[in-house]
């Protein structure tokens, strides 16, 4: 994860580090411009987590629901975006899909622009073994956007030059067992029979998306028997893929690496789709409703200003809008085709 954590204040810095250590995506929202009167100032920041929690300060009730919504969209797309809240809403420029302008309806007026940058954990390929296949995977995986962790049966050198910042992380088996890995982790165990069982046992203790074993079917059966004898349940053993890789008729170590990496990429992309679909299902009913007075998007689950009218529930960004609506509901519901549509 290319961290912007060093630019955050202490509480946000701690939260960013915790999220990154757990492999959880988040977004950083930063106020980049303002026109008074608004409560936020240039440089104010907040973190929005993948479950919609907003920590920090980027403005009050008019800003927070919009920022939360746009941050979640940025996390799912992996693309940054600029959000402008203003009393003057120009037409969207052609091709300007990463910039959004929302009407600012707080009685105080003002304008604020907020840059939202998603911090999505880089998928990790954990390649286990001291074999040419592992070396081939270590060379290919970064090109496909994966971070690489190399696991060897021998201990890493206790001293000597540190690996390059963009080089692979190196662990021994003890380090593998102690390391934390998130769901966007992909294990390839290719130790040629030297320590397959230990590596697989460690991998099965993580929420890794993919665990592949490079071995003949006969040796794979023997490995599974050892793991059963250690008490690992069948449901866990079923997570192990063997043979690893897509069937492309690979013959050389490099071709086998291509077949494995292709399967890993396919599984990674499938996981992204499932995560997005799961988020939609978990959301249930729409999370945002339109304030019928001002047109502001209001977060339903946390809305403080709510009114019932004609058997319908309406949500408002502030008590001022709610008061205006209750004075003359039909004024704001007539046609429901303008900025006051619910």
From TrEMBL:
SUPFAM superfamilies found in the cross-reference section:
Ferritin-like
Gene3D superfamilies named among the record's database cross-references: NAD(P)-binding Rossmann-like Domain (3.40.50.720), Ribonucleotide Reductase, subunit A (1.10.620.20)
Q: Name one GO molecular function term.
A: oxidoreductase activity
> In what residue span(s) does the TRASH domain sit?
291-329
Q: What InterPro entries does the entry give?
A: Ferritin-like_SF, MoCofactor_Util/Proc, RNR-like, TRASH_dom, XdhC_CoxI, XdhC_Rossmann_dom, YHS_dom
Protein name per Swiss-Prot or TrEMBL: TRASH domain-containing protein
Q: Would you say which domain of life the source belongs to?
A: Bacteria
Name the Pfam families on file.
Answer: XdhC_C, XdhC_CoxI, YHS
């Amino acid at each position: 994860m290319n961290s912007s954590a060093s630019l955050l204040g202490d509480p946000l810095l701690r939260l960013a580090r915790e999220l990154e250590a757990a492999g959880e995506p988040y977004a950083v929202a930063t106020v980049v411009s303002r026109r008074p009167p608004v409560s936020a100032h240039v440089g104010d920041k907040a973190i929005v987590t993948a479950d919609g929690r907003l920590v920090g300060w980027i403005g009050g009730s008019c800003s927070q629901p919009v920022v939360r919504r746009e941050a979640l969209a940025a996390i799912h797309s992996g693309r940054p975006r600029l959000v402008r809240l203003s009393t003057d809403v120009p037409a969207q420029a052609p091709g300007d899909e990463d910039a959004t302008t929302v009407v600012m309806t707080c009685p105080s007026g003002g304008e604020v622009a907020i840059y939202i940058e998603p911090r999505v954990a880089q998928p990790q390929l954990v390649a286990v073994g001291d074999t040419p296949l592992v070396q081939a995977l270590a060379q290919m995986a970064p090109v496909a956007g994966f971070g690489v962790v190399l696991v060897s049966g021998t201990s890493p050198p206790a001293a000597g030059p540190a690996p390059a910042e963009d080089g692979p992380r190196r662990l021994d088996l003890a380090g593998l067992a102690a390391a934390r890995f998130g769901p966007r982790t992909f294990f390839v165990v290719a130790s040629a029979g030297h320590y397959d069982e230990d590596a697989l046992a460690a991998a099965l203790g993580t929420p890794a998306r993919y665990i592949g074993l490079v071995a003949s079917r006969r040796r794979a059966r023997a490995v599974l028997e050892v793991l059963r004898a250690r008490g690992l349940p069948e449901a866990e053993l079923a997570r192990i893929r063997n043979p690893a890789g897509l069937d492309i008729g690979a013959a050389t170590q490099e071709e086998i690496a291509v077949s494995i990496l292709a399967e890993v990429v396919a599984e990674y992309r499938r996981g992204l789709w499932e995560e997005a679909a799961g988020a939609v299902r978990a959301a249930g009913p729409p999370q945002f409703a339109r304030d019928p007075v001002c047109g502001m998007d209001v977060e339903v689950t946390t809305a403080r200003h709510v009114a019932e009218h004609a058997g319908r529930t309406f949500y408002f960004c502030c008590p001022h809008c709610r008061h205006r609506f209750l004075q003359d509901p039909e004024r704001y519901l007539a046609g429901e085709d303008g900025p006051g549509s619910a």
